[in-house]
Structures are given as structure tokens and as C-alpha cells.
């Protein structure tokens, strides 16, 4: 039976790596995210080339519950429901609390936390019917610890951890698991672009930016790769991981061990 995976924020970075990993298992993939039409077409074609299943793209905006509902309804109408749900969409904004723009707070909570509530709520009925389902939420080391100036992001990721645990308890007897992955600094195109900018701004080398700024709190002094996160998502969605539920797996080079 071909499984269907819905992955939010999957047109680049971690989400795209996860989409490719599941595509290689022969799953149907429902992609979602922003990008120029030609970029989205290229991504859809690349993922489609890896699977014997069907690959679709849905443009749902994760700040809009009605668009999220349509994304999840598409999985039902086209594939009979979502077997594997990966909540990956996320945004960041950095500012001190007293100057933090209210609209940025609302946007980050909507995308990084509330969207997972909307997708899970819609996915669970079909999972219960089938007696099998996997929910993987991409949280962050910031789901466990805080950094200054990231109030909305840290609050949202802590919220994701609580949501994950609650859902896991509710569906524990239905063959459904819910878990969070907590990556540290992952080398995505977004992060790569910041390195030369930070080097210029701080007047230091790119190597210093990586070791002394970005990976300061990561004892291994190495970035996590998107493929490593994807392989963990793949494992959590497997039958071998059937008894792993309601928890998080840290992949942070030792960050939260300190």
C-alpha cells in the first residue's frame, strides 16, 4: 500500500530534504511552500523523479487556516488521507521583547505553532480509520532552551513540544505516533547566505562567523545537514519506531547537553 506524506514548507531546506527522503521510499508526496513558479516546478519535478508515487504541490499559506484545511482536504481527495504528516514550515524574527512587532509575533505563532494544530487536527481522522499514522513535528533546540531576542520563535517551538506530547497521548491506541525533532543549527541555503553577510557586518572571517557566532553553542562545531534531519524523520515514520511517541529527539551537536 503506497503511503502518502504531507510535508509543510517543503520547497527548500529541511522540508525538501525530507520530501526527497520519503519520495525514495515510493510514497505519494504533497509538497507545500513558497517560491517562484519555475522554482516550484523544478522542485516538484526533482521529487517526482525519485518516487513511483504521485507528487503534487499545494500553495497553502501557513498563516491561513482555510488554506491549510484545503491542503489537508487535497490529501484526502487525491490519496485517501495523510499517512505521514511532517510539520516543517517555519519562520524567524529577531528583536528585543519591548520592540518586538506584534504582527511578527502573530505571524511566527501562526506559522511555527498554530499551523501544526490545523494540519494534525485534519490528518488524525483518516489515520485513526486506517489504524496507522506518523506525525513528525520539526521543532528546534529552541523547543528545549532559549536564546535572547527570539521570544516568538522560542515560545512557538516550546508550544510544538507540548502539542506533540498531547496528541501522542490521545492517539496512542490508534497505531499513530507523534514526535518532535529538535535540530540545532542546520546548514540550509538560508543559513549559508547569512555567513558572508555576518562576516562583513562583524569584520571577521567567514570561518569565525561559523565557529564563534553560529556554532558557538554547538560542541561538535559542525552544522547538522538537511539529510541527517531527513533520515531521522524517515526512521520516526518507520514501523521500527512504533513505540517511540510523545517525545523529542535532539540532533544538535550537544547544544542542549550543556
Automatic annotation (TrEMBL):
Domain of life: Bacteria
Pfam families the UniProt entry points to: adh_short_C2
One BP term from GO: monocarboxylic acid metabolic process
Gene3D superfamilies from the UniProt entry: NAD(P)-binding Rossmann-like Domain (3.40.50.720)
Keywords from the named record: Oxidoreductase
One example GO MF annotation: 3-hydroxybutyrate dehydrogenase activity
Homology family: Belongs to the short-chain dehydrogenases/reductases (SDR) family.
Entry-linked PANTHER family: 3-OXOACYL-(ACYL-CARRIER-PROTEIN) REDUCTASE, 3-OXOACYL-[ACYL-CARRIER-PROTEIN] REDUCTASE FABG
Name recorded for this polypeptide: D-beta-hydroxybutyrate dehydrogenase
Species the sequence originates in: Sinorhizobium sojae CCBAU 05684
Amino acid at each position: 500500500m503506497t503511503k502518502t506524506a504531507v510535508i509543510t514548507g517543503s520547497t527548500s531546506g529541511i522540508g525538501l530534504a525530507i520530501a526527497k527522503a520519503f519520495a525514495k521510499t515510493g510514497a505519494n508526496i504533497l509538497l507545500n511552500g513558497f517560491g517562484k513558479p519555475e522554482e516550484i516546478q523544478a522542485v516538484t519535478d526533482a521529487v517526482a523523479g525519485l518516487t513511483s508515487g504521485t507528487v503534487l504541490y499545494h500553495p497553502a499559506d501557513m498563516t491561513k487556516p482555510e488554506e491549510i484545511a484545503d491542503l489537508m482536504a487535497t490529501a484526502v481527495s487525491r490519496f485517501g488521507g495523510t499517512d505521514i504528516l511532517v510539520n516543517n514550515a517555519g519562520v524567524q524574527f529577531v528583536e528585543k521583547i519591548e520592540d518586538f512587532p506584534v504582527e511578527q509575533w502573530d505571524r511566527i505563532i501562526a506559522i511555527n505553532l498554530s499551523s501544526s494544530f490545523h494540519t494534525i487536527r485534519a490528518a488524525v481522522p483518516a489515520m485513526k480509520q486506517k489504524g496507522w499514522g506518523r506525525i513528525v513535528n520539526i521543532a528546534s533546540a529552541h523547543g528545549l532552551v532559549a536564546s535572547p531576542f527570539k521570544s516568538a520563535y522560542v515560545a512557538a517551538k516550546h508550544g510544538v513540544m507540548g502539542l506533540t506530547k498531547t496528541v501522542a497521548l490521545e492517539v496512542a491506541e490508534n497505531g499513530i505516533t507523534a514526535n518532535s525533532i529538535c535540530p540545532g543549527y542546520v546548514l540550509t541555503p538560508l543559513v549559508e547566505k547569512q555567513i558572508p553577510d555576518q562576516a562583513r557586518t562583524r569584520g571577521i572571517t567567514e570561518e569565525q562567523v561559523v565557529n564563534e557566532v553560529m556554532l558557538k553553542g554547538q560542541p561538535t562545531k559542525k552544522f547538522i545537514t538537511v539529510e541527517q534531519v531527513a533520515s531521522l524523520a524517515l526512521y520516526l515514520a518507520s514501523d521500527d519506531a512504533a513505540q517511540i511517541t510523545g517525545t523529542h529527539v535532539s540532533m544538535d551537536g550537544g547544544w542542549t547537553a550543556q
